[in-house]
Specification:
mainly alpha; two-stranded antiparallel sheet; two-stranded antiparallel ribbon
Length: about 450
């Protein structure tokens, strides 16, 4: 994204020091206006854009040479895979479905009464049959992926019943492709016009989507790719939004992130890669603005602090040692391995105002990019929005990816606006979930 900047290899001592420092220690913790559901929507977006299963923290990776096993597009390939012909196990195979419906599981019927009636489709071992296994790593993300399956299926059913005819005049054989386009475009709209405006300075992403305005930084006329400054740096801002526990519904309160037991129906933690426990079925009004009478629980603030569970990960998640068990340590080590430039060098290259040394608390040393972006958000963004350098990386990358994809909504002619929400021309993540859940 920013060729010519030298990599910054933060000393191990500094990485360990920052990892120990980056934890919640009281003070103002909750984000003032960001519902908790957007934390996990950001995780789903990240999984949609990038999947690199071969890079190692033990190696110094070349950011230009790391292969992305996800398409660098907002195309929901983690939901659709290669389509019904290429990945039929993702799709319902009965005659009634016609091959257009995505497969949805029933874990109560498959695994017993302690599990949810509606879940991701699973094999006999309880592992999810989905396009990206990472979307089953916690119970909230599991159910957000499930919402996209049912979102698609409801669009298919509506089209088959003659709904949305003003937006489509295709034939029966084109139904799957049309439903997929509608789902993708509404999802892209949520990314660009709902999620990102909540965490970026006002008007930034919307201005960059203007086709008449030249893209400034990312591809320079080449093929789309995933910039390391985005995937290993700025877009990891979502880790600081995580709460230490969540209220899932009226019955299940303060569910912690991780659990140590072996009971797959244990509803005391959000751990995934198992059938969804019935007690962890999400009341989405706890996560999104679905009811004025019941405000959702908030995400945490955008700052340099992670909740305690993320600073002491379970064994097997991080390398040995107290610092290595921290997600902060893993992110900082990842930035080193990817050869990211320092935050100060990135800010200067972007023309962003530099943070003063006393804001970084590094005794004048260069700052790892991820730490710099979070410090910007905590200070210049007041814990609500990303600062100049972080916001520019995120907005420029997302806008460039949408503009580089000829099948995205920004290339629609005449210009397209969403039509599935209660307000014409508007569509939010809450509207998507409401439509998906009927």
């Amino acid at each position: 994204m920013l060729p010519g900047l030298a990599p910054y290899r933060a000393p191990r001592r500094l990485v360990d020091q920052l990892a120990r420092r980056m934890r919640e220690d009281g003070g103002e913790l909750d984000h003032p206006d960001l519902p908790a559901g957007y934390t996990y929507f950001g995780q789903l977006v990240n999984h949609d854009l990038s999947f690199d299963p071969v890079s190692s923290l033990q190696l110094h990776n070349d950011p230009a040479g790391v292969e992305d096993f996800r398409t660098p597009r907002f195309d929901l390939d983690m939901v659709y895979g290669g389509g019904p012909e290429d990945m039929p196990y993702l799709y319902a195979q009965d005659r009634r479905s016609g091959g257009e419906l995505l497969l949805v599981g029933d874990s109560r019927a498959q695994f017993g009464s302690r599990f949810a009636r509606q879940d991701l489709p699973r094999n006999a071992e309880g592992r999810a049959l989905i396009g990206d296994p990472r979307n089953d790593e916690n119970a909230i993300l599991t159910q957000l992926h499930l919402a996209f399956l049912t979102f698609h299926n409801h669009v298919v059913s509506d089209l088959r019943d003659g709904g949305h005819a003003v937006h489509w005049a295709g034939g029966e054989g084109e139904l799957f492709g049309e439903a997929q386009r509608i789902v993708r475009w509404h999802y892209q709209w949520v990314v660009a016009h709902d999620f990102l405006p909540r965490v970026l300075p006002a008007g930034l992403i919307e201005g960059l989507l203007d086709q008449k305005r030249p893209a400034r930084l990312v591809f320079d006329g080449g093929a789309p790719f995933m910039p390391a400054e985005f995937s290993a740096g700025a877009f990891r801002f979502g880790h600081t939004l995580v709460r230490p526990s969540y209220q899932l519904n009226d019955r299940t309160r303060e569910v912690r992130l991780f659990g140590a037991g072996s009971d797959p129906a244990d509803a005391s933690h959000l751990g995934g890669f198992r059938p969804l426990p019935a007690r962890l079925v999400a009341d989405w009004s706890r996560f999104l603005e679905l009811s004025p009478a019941a405000p959702p629980q908030p995400a945490r603030r955008l700052d340099t602090r992670l909740p305690a569970p993320l600073t002491s990960l379970p064994a097997g998640v991080g390398p040995p040692g107290s610092a290595g068990r921290s997600l902060a340590w893993l992110n900082l080590a990842r930035g080193n391995a990817m050869g990211l430039p320092s935050g100060q060098d990135v800010a200067e290259a972007l023309g962003a105002p530099p943070l003063p040394p006393d804001a970084l608390h590094l005794a004048g040393a260069p700052a790892p990019l991820w730490y710099y972006v979070l410090t910007e958000a905590a200070t210049l963004g007041e814990g609500r929005r990303l600062g100049p350098a972080g916001a520019t990386i995120v907005a420029e990358t997302v806008a460039a990816l949408l503009r580089a994809d000829p099948a995205s909504f920004v290339h629609a002619s005449p210009p397209w606006t969403p039509f599935l929400g209660p307000r014409p021309g508007e569509f939010t993540l809450a509207d998507l979930v409401a439509y998906a859940t009927g």
